[in-house]
Amino acid sequence: MIRATLQFSLVISLGFLAAIKIQGQPGEGKPHGIVLRVQSIQQLVQNTLFLLESMGKLEEGRQIENVLKLMIGTKGLEGIHTEKPLGLYGQIGANIFDSDLVGLIPIADQPTFLALLDKLNLKAKKGKGEVYSMEIPNFPFPLFFRFQDGYLLITVRTEQGIKEGKGGPKDFFIGGKGNVIFFELNVASLPEDLAKNLVPQIELQLVEEKNRKVPGETPAQEKFRQDMSEFFLQSIVQLFTQGERVSLALDLDRKTGDIDVSMSLSGKKDSDLAKSIDKMGSLPSLGASLKGKNSVFHFGTTLQLPDYLKNDFLANFLETLQGDLAKEKDAGRKALMEKFLKAVTPSVAAGAIDLGLDVRAEQNGKFSFVAGLKVANGKGLEEVLRQMHKALPPMEQKNMQLDAFPLKNGTMAHKLLVPVPPMDVPLFGSGPLFLAILDNKVLLSGGANGKEALEEVAARPLGKSQALEFSMALNAGAPLLAKGIANAESLAQKAFAKSPKADTWEIKASGGKELSLKMNLKSPVLKFMSLSGGGKK
Question: What one-character-per-residue DSSP string does 457-514 give?
Fold first, then answer.
């Protein structure tokens, strides 16, 4: 049954390759428009078994392994070599299906592979130059292939692309980094007609969104939504017209247990896209400066809105606060609201979103946290806070203790006596919160060592820009997950029993020479996710 399924899959694969016009060879001087490298079947199987074992599904993995051992003989998997990588390369056409691509399938034994084609009722006819032709059922064009350097080179419609001297596997696999999967799209080589065909279809969808009426939406909110749609469209157009390369890679190291996924985008030199990506890598980041050595959860983001979205964002903010001002009848409160509006407007007008949160595990078994927000007018916000404090009733003033202690730079930090929810006391304790407003940032901390966390972060300069940064230590931070996952701590103990510190899961997006998105996790994390999948509350 499995053998029949494999044979059927081969027919489907050949049909897919035939459906795309597979031509174009390396060595012709033109960079590949598309590159796909996939590690060998044997390595794929080993990595799959490793992942299944990591997820606690060892029995399923052994069943797959036993079946494959029966299927793979001395002449390979029906003549296909299982220890060599597979590949695909070529140029993308304006209509996708007119693309010029070449498929590379490793061959262990040519007669066995040809016999497989006969068994599948696919009659291959040998022609000049060792090129075979073959008809695919229900497909109007012939398929051509040739054996070279231990590989099958496959194309369709015409044999021109695979003639001898057109390059081949040796050229293609030189320089490969051994990724599990590597995909690269040379955006700069895409035909202009492709964008002309795709963009109008996307634009039609966005026009519907822009014209959609949302009940209760204010004019400022409507304009912001419409401009977001326009921003999305322009980003797609910019990708096609100014993009250089897009890549995706999956890596797995069975020795260290590291699983890495990375994506990248680069723009053409001196293009607006390249400049925007470079700027993302040069922005100072508050979120990146919050992370502590004992961090178990970290999130930070640093983004700069385009000018027109920045103006829309400010308009929405002003519209909301001015509406609240108009409703306020108390003269004193209204005056404070006006001062707050004046103090916070420069930060909103800057169009910079820079914030973060870091949770740390302390030696006493509890946790601390520190959160931060970058601002443009810290002094103004501090002044408003002090005026708000004066306006509070005496009993409430006691709960906001101004100038509780000085920071290293002379800024006075404040203590907030806020009741901690009973369910959070075992995690963070019942201590106060701490607030500090500096020239360029507002910091709030709490928990077991909240004061120390605030002092530490307040003394740091802004960090290296990260558009997005997320990390979590699932074993050390398991108690934090108890609200959403039943028995989170016991599941973590089971998942990380052999390697307690191999519990990290990280995601980072950053700019610079290229826009990159990277994710890394340790293999025991998969086991924890598998175990906790059925334990969600």
Answer: HHTSPPB---SEEEEEETTTTGGGGTTTBTTHHHHHHHHTSS-TT--EEEEEEE-SSS
